């Protein structure tokens, strides 16, 4: 299944592929046909792979879904560190940065069930998304959700190639854990700010699956 968030791009690519194929049929040059068919094939395969939207089921391993914080994105955890978050959580937290390469699924999902209390778009740079500096310097959308266990903040962050963030959420919206709400085009990162009243279940270098991997679990005492 393909995500609806990529419809505009897919239409543009489809038109481009049709033009390339038509040119390949029109020309008598064998080398030109080879190049044109090659480009058309690459664009088709890349776009179908990039905009895929597979079904996901949380990998709870005996845990209660309500007690878990799911990964909002597919990718690799490139950074986990202690930071101060002054915007929404206003506390000392664990930052988990998930880098999405162009080969990963780019549909983003809600990590917890709750109400969107905070939504802020910040203009910024387009540094390579895997670099630590991109956390605070790149263009991003900050999303704060108040759940039954407490508040959680996560950011959609652009990268060097990624130049467009799609976020359908609005302040006041209610979301369910695992719900799809947007994506980032083309290659980027998602930063999750995990409160201290949680137990971290991942480490740097781990690969995550959006809507499936459990990043952390709320502590029972809370």
Structure write-up:
- The protein has 222 residues and is α+β, with helices and mostly antiparallel strands.
- 20% of the residues lie in helices and 36% in strands.
- It is built from three helices and 14 strands.
- The strands form three sheets. Strands 9-5-6-7-11-3-2-13 form an eight-stranded antiparallel beta sheet, with no helix packed on it. The protein has a three-stranded antiparallel beta sheet with strand order 1-14-12, with no helix packed on it.
- A hairpin with a 3-residue loop joins strand 6 (140-147) and strand 7 (151-157).
- The model has no long low-confidence stretch (mean pLDDT 88).
Secondary structure: elements and pairs:
Layout (H helix, E strand, L loop, with lengths): L6 H20 L3 H21 L17 E3 L4 E11 L5 E10 L6 E3 L4 E9 L11 H4 L2 E8 L3 E7 L6 E4 L6 E2 L4 E6 L2 E7 L3 E3 L6 E2 L5 E5 L4
Antiparallel strand pairs: 1-14, 2-3, 2-13, 3-11, 4-10, 5-6, 5-9, 6-7, 7-11, 8-10, 12-14
Helix pairs in contact: 1-2
């Amino acid at each position: 299944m393909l995500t609806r968030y990529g419809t505009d791009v897919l239409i543009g690519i489809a038109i481009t592929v049709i033009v390339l194929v038509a040119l390949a049929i029109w020309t008598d040059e064998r080398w030109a046909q080879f190049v044109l068919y090659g480009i058309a094939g690459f664009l088709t395969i890349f776009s179908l792979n990039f905009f895929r939207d597979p079904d996901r089921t949380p990998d709870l391993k005996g845990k209660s879904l309500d007690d878990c914080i799911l990964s909002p994105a597919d990718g690799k955890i490139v950074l986990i560190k202690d930071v101060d978050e002054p915007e929404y959580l206003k506390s000392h937290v664990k930052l988990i940065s998930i880098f999405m390469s162009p080969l990963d699924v780019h549909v983003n999902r809600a990590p917890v069930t709750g109400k969107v209390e905070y939504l802020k778009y910040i203009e910024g740079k387009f540094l390579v998304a895997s670099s630590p500096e991109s956390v605070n310097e790149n263009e991003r959308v900050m999303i704060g959700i108040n759940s039954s266990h407490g508040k959680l903040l996560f950011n959609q962050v652009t990268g060097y190639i990624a130049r467009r963030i799609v976020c359908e959420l609005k302040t006041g919206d209610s979301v369910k854990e695992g719900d799809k709400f947007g994506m980032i085009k083309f290659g980027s990162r998602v930063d999750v700010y995990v409160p201290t009243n949680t137990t971290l279940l991942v480490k740097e270098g781990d690969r995550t699956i959006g809507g499936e991997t459990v990043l952390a679990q709320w502590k029972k005492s809370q």
